[in-house]
Amino acid sequence: MGSKKGFLAVISLLGFTIFIILTTRGLDLYQQKTAPISIIKQSPRKDVLKQHSAALRSTKQQRLRQDLLRRNCAAVNLSLEDLNSTYLNNFIVDDKHGIIYCYIPKVACTNWKRTLIALNSSKPYPDPMSFEQRWVHNFDRFKHLKNFPQAERKEKLQHYTKFLFVRDPFVRLISAYRDKMQHYDQYFYKGYVRVILQLYKNQTNLTYSHEVAKKKGLQPSFYDFIQYLLDPRTERYASFEPHWRQMHRLCHPCLVEYDFVGHQETLQEDAQELLKMLKLEDDIKFPPSYENMTSTDSVKDWFQSVPLEDRRKLYKVYEKDFQLFGYRRPTELLDE
Length: 336
Fold this sequence. Notes:
55% of the residues lie in helices and 6% in strands. The chain is mostly helical. Helix 7 packs across helix 9 (222-230) and helix 9 (222-230) packs across helix 14.
């Protein structure tokens, strides 16, 4: 009899426990079913949706850019061991944040250098725009990859976040002409402007002073500059100056596997995405970009003075940049 009472007591306790569990579970299910109703009623903020959409586009864009590099570099049978110090003039190292930046002149490199200087200053980080342009380009302000021992270079290239920014090759070329052929300093006058005027304008007895030359209004035409680039003697004498050297020859994307490929044409969005990837978006803001004076739409106007055959030759010189970095072939310039 006592055992029967004990058995009934256990059954009762078990039944009460099951009742409690089912009641609690039912409440949880009810809350789960009803909670989304309040979320649906609250419309998401448009700016949040816009940011999320932009982030998705940017991520997809990066995959496409990196896939394009991999496809175009598939036939290149080289590795990091082939990347000797002579290839590394444009590689800047930030050990503090684990970053390697390959800078390309005429592709926002001044503002990226400013940003890296600011990131390596004591907190709070100063405004990158507070650094003057001339001061920023001092070679000794940065650690350069080529100055590290080979084993350490390889280690950094394997483990650091590597990035570069590129630009439409012909637009970059026009920008280089405007900056270095029209607004030259003594270095560019003596080494390039004066030489071009002698070779293609047959000008003699030219002054050695860039200031005197500017007062006289001396400068090569855009076509003179193109002739200089196409002249076989130019590269036989020395490699192209970095401001118009092909981008792939500066940053070697078939040897270095970049984690991020930015474009000048989407500079602000790409810069923000990169800083987010580096978990630095809350620490520093990339400087605002000025209106691009050399727009893609104006390229045809610049090339009006260049004969069709020379345009096609010039495209061949920069064709690899067009292909590697996803810039379309400018048919309006080449297929007339």
